[in-house]
Design a protein that fits this description.
single chain, Helix Hairpins, Heat Shock Protein 90, 3 domains, four-stranded antiparallel β-sheet, 10 helices
C-alpha cells in the first residue's frame, strides 16, 4: 500500500484528475502490477500475493467517492490519503482479508439462493406441466365413467363405457359394463315376467267372466258341467297364484323347509301312486327302478313331494298318448341320482338351456290345456338347490326329455 501511494499521487499530478482512471480496469490493473513488480525488484525471489491484496484496493476521490477497484469496501478498511501540492486529492483504501471473505460468502450465498429459486421455479413449472398431462390421462376415463354412471342411474341400462386400458380403471370399466348388462337383462326379465303374469292371469279370469255373463244372460246352463268348468278355471288360477307366491318366497329366501331324515325312494313311489289313474287314462306306461335299500336324505318331505309331482305333471302334459316314463335311481359318491326319461315329443337343443326359466314353454303354440303356465320346472330348480342338490335337463334316449336330479346323501 505504501509503495502504491507515490505512484497514484504521481499519476494524479500528471493527469490533473482521476478521470483517466475511472472505469478503466485495465489501467488500474497495470498500475497495481507495476507497483508490485517494483516492490519485489530488490528481493531475490518474488513474494506471491497469497491474500490477494491487489484485489482489495479501492481508489476514492477527495470526497471519498468510488473511482475504481474493490467495490464492496467495508467500514473497517485501512485508509491512506493521497496528497498533491499539499492538498488531499484522494484516498486509497485496503479492505481486510476477513471482510473480503465474508463478502464473498454472502455473495456466494446470494447467488446460490437465486439459483435455487430459479431451479425450484423451473422444477415447479415442469412438474405442473406433467401433472396436468397425467391428470388429464387419469381423469378422462373417470369422467366418462361418472357420466355413464349417471345415465345408468337414470334408467338407461344400454349405457356402456369404452375399455381402453388394462389397469384398475380398465377393470373398473369392465365391471361397470358387466353391471349394466346384468341390469339390462334383469329389466328385460322383469318386463317379460310382468307381461307373462298379466297374460296368465287374464286368461282364466276372462273365461270365468265370460261364463258368468253367459249364465247371467241365460245363454249357459247352470248345471254341474258348467260348475265343473268354472271350478277348473278357478283351480288353474289358484295354482298359478300359489306358484307365483312360492317363487317370490324362494327369491326372498323366505321359503320354509322342515328337514328330517327321509327315504326319497318311498316318497317317490307314493307320489307316483297318486298319478296311476290319470296316467292310465292317458295311456302312459311307467317303469321305476330304484335301489332296495332306503335312499336316505335330510330334506323336507313336503317340498320333495311337490318336486316329484311337478315332474310327473310335466310328463303328463308334454308326452304323447301311448308313451312311457322311465324312473331310475342309483347311489353316487356324494349322494343319490334320480333320472326321469319320457318319450316323444322331444325338446330342441336351443330350448334345453331355458327349460328352468319362468313362463318358458318349449312350444309357444301349445294351448293352456296342455302347456300350463311354465312355472313348474322353475319351482323344481329352487327346491333342489335349497336341498344342496342340482337339476339338469337333456334329450332323452326315448325321444322326449331327460331330467337328472342329484341330492346329497344323509350321512350317519
Amino acid at each position: 500500500m505504501e509503495d502504491l501511494i507515490p505512484h497514484l499521487e504521481e499519476s494524479y499530478q500528471r493527469n490533473g484528475s482521476w478521470e483517466f482512471m475511472k472505469d478503466d480496469a485495465r489501467n488500474w490493473s497495470l498500475l497495481l502490477k507495476t507497483t508490485r513488480h517494483r516492490a519485489n525488484s530488490g528481493t531475490a525471489q518474488s513474494t506471491p500475493d497469497l491474500a490477494g491484496a491487489h484485489l482489495r484496493f479501492t481508489l476514492l476521490d477527495a470526497n471519498r467517492q468510488f473511482v475504481i477497484g474493490f467495490r464492496d469496501m467495508k467500514p473497517d478498511a485501512l485508509f491512506r490519503a493521497l496528497i498533491s501540492n499539499g492538498v488531499v486529492v484522494g484516498w486509497l483504501a485496503l479492505t481486510p482479508f476477513e471482510s473480503v471473505i465474508t463478502v464473498i460468502d454472502q455473495r456466494f450465498q446470494k447467488n446460490q439462493l437465486i439459483n435455487h429459486l430459479l431451479i425450484g421455479l423451473a422444477s415447479l413449472l415442469f412438474t405442473g406441466f406433467f401433472a396436468v398431462k397425467i391428470a388429464n390421462v387419469l381423469l378422462s376415463p373417470l369422467v366418462r365413467l361418472t357420466q355413464a354412471t349417471h345415465r345408468l342411474a337414470g334408467g338407461d341400462y344400454t349405457t356402456r363405457v369404452e375399455v381402453t386400458t388394462r389397469d384398475e380403471i380398465g377393470r373398473l370399466s369392465t365391471d361397470f359394463n358387466q353391471l349394466a348388462l346384468t341390469l339390462e337383462r334383469n329389466e328385460k326379465m322383469r318386463r317379460d315376467f310382468m307381461a307373462d303374469v298379466s297374460h296368465e292371469l287374464r286368461t282364466p279370469l276372462g273365461i270365468l267372466n265370460g261364463q258368468l255373463e253367459a249364465m247371467e244372460d241365460g245363454l249357459l246352463d247352470t248345471g254341474m258341467e258348467t260348475v265343473k268348468s268354472l271350478q277348473s278355471e278357478v283351480a288353474a288360477l289358484n295354482k298359478l297364484v300359489n306358484d307365483l307366491y312360492e317363487l317370490s318366497l324362494a327369491d326372498a329366501g323366505a321359503l320354509t323347509y322342515r328337514k328330517a331324515d327321509i327315504d326319497i325312494g318311498a316318497l317317490l313311489r307314493a307320489s307316483l301312486q297318486s298319478y296311476e289313474d290319470i296316467y292310465r287314462e292317458h295311456r302312459l306306461a311307467v317303469a321305476i327302478d330304484l335301489p332296495e335299500q332306503p335312499m336316505l336324505v335330510h330334506a323336507d318331505a313336503g317340498r320333495l313331494q311337490q318336486l316329484f309331482k311337478n315332474i310327473l305333471e310335466n310328463t303328463l302334459r308334454y308326452t304323447d298318448g301311448g308313451g312311457r316314463l322311465n324312473i331310475t335311481g342309483k347311489r353316487e359318491q356324494q349322494g343319490w341320482l334320480l333320472q326321469f326319461d319320457d318319450s316323444t315329443p322331444g325338446i330342441t337343443a336351443a330350448a334345453l338351456p331355458r327349460l328352468f326359466e319362468r313362463f318358458f314353454r318349449a312350444d309357444a303354440s301349445r294351448n293352456r290345456a296342455h302347456g300350463g303356465a311354465g312355472l313348474g320346472l322353475a319351482i323344481c330348480q329352487h327346491i333342489v338347490e335349497a336341498h344342496g342338490g342340482s337339476i339338469s335337463a337333456d334329450a332323452s334316449a326315448l325321444g322326449g326329455l331327460h331330467l337328472s336330479i342329484r341330492l346329497p346323501t344323509r350321512l350317519t
